[in-house]
Write a structure and sequence with these properties.
Order of helices and strands: HHHHHHHHH
Helix content: 40-55%
Shape: elongated
Largest sheet: none
Low-confidence stretches: 1-7
Strand content: under 5%
Mean pLDDT: 77
Distance between the termini: 95 Å
Number of helices: 9
Structural class: mainly alpha
Radius of gyration: 33 Å
Length: 216
């Protein structure tokens, strides 16, 4: 990955495609869940619309199950490149160890591309989930480009399991609260305050004159 970053400086390879794919796939999971629930609700209202054992009825529940799996996979954001700030989602450090234990299946993006392409198939047979199929296909394209670019998923922090991250809760330098002012307003400048708080200094001693050295 370092060699790829060093030799390819074009915008196509400098973009973090995995971050775009992560957002698309996460919203796709939400759209899939909503579409599957809407389709299942409409089937319950219209009881005799389709046979019970038809693929359309089964596909709705498959879509709901796949949406939960995709949401679980995509909720933890991956670690960004060097000199980039990692913004984690709330509670993702407790889910990331599960993805981390899957080794290459969860870390290498080409496996996510294969899984998501297979997940698009049942969405085609569920009309309310067509939008999720389109957004999931876009995330597959982004993940494929990320795999070509040499990107891999890596957890920014792990709350448990192998390689758990030790969080430092001690206050850092530069994040401490400033001291409260000791003088009521209006306050003079800092230089004047230092002069006011310092004790008054005694006048310098006068030089002693010797009477014998005085001119006649």
């Amino acid at each position: 990955m370092a060699e790829r970053e060093g030799c390819c400086k074009t915008p196509f390879f400098t973009i973090e495609w995995a971050m775009w794919a992560n957002v698309n796939a996460l919203y796709s999971a939400v759209f899939m869940f909503i579409g599957g629930v809407v389709a299942a609700t409409m089937e319950t209202i219209n009881e005799n619309s389709l046979p019970v054992h038809s693929f359309g009825v089964v596909a709705r529940w498959i879509v709901i199950g796949l949406s939960l799996i995709i949401f679980f996979i995509e909720y933890p954001r991956g670690k960004r490149r060097k000199n980039k700030k990692n913004v984690e989602r709330p509670g993702q450090s407790y889910i990331a160890p599960v993805i981390n234990l899957t080794f290459f299946v969860g870390k290498i993006y080409i496996f996510r591309v294969i899984f998501y392409i297979l997940a698009i198939i049942p969405c085609i047979f569920v009309l309310p989930a067509i939008l999720s199929a389109i957004t999931l296909f876009i995330s597959c394209v982004c993940y494929f480009i990320a795999a070509i670019n040499g990107e891999e998923w890596e957890a920014p922090s792990l709350a448990w399991g192998p390689g758990a991250t030790q969080r430092d809760d001690t206050p850092k330098v530069g994040h401490t609260l400033p001291e409260a002012p000791s003088h009521p307003p209006p306050r003079p400048p800092p230089q004047a305050r230092q002069g006011l708080s310092a004790p008054p200094s005694a006048p310098p001693p006068r030089p002693k004159t010797n009477l014998s050295d005085a001119p006649e």
